[in-house]
């Protein structure tokens, strides 16, 4: 199965920007719809964005116009470019891989994003 390793989290001021990366290994990257989810303390994990192998994207309403998901199939990497960050964006962000055929889902370890002044 694919293994997911995330990076790029950290502390950023409101209005700032941050880019998260997720590197997949151990399987055929193009067979997976990739996505980002997040979980804030005391809340359930929520959908942020997904991207298909062909580049079709979907976003949660809360991040539309601010977050942009992309993937580089040659590098087996999915990105989440975040801008105009708000304190409510503070959460642990998880990379997700959803196999197009089996629909099995795999998760990364998560990376903390903190938006605070």
Distance between the termini: 40 Å
Query: For this entry, what is the oligomeric state of its chains?
Result: single chain
Query: What is the helix fraction of residues, given as a range?
Result: under 10%
Q: What kind of sheet is the major sheet?
A: 7 strands, mixed
Overall mean pLDDT: 95
What does this structure look like?
The protein is an all-beta fold. 0% of the residues lie in helices and 53% in strands. The chain is built from no helices and eleven strands. The chain has strands spanning 3-7, 10-12, 18-25, 32-39, 46-51, 57-59, 67-72, 77-82, 91-99, 105-107, 111-115. Strand 9 and strand 10 (105-107) form a beta hairpin. The protein is globular, with a radius of gyration of 13 Å. The N and C termini lie far apart (40 Å). The mean pLDDT is 95.
Summarize the structure.
The protein is mostly beta strands and 117 residues long.
Give the helix/strand layout:
Elements: E1 3-7, E2 10-12, E3 18-25, E4 32-39, E5 46-51, E6 57-59, E7 67-72, E8 77-82, E9 91-99, E10 105-107, E11 111-115
Parallel strand pairs: 2-11
Antiparallel strand pairs: 1-3, 3-8, 4-5, 4-9, 5-6, 7-8, 9-10, 9-11
List its traits.
single chain, 117 residues, mainly beta, four-stranded antiparallel β-sheet, 53% strand, globular
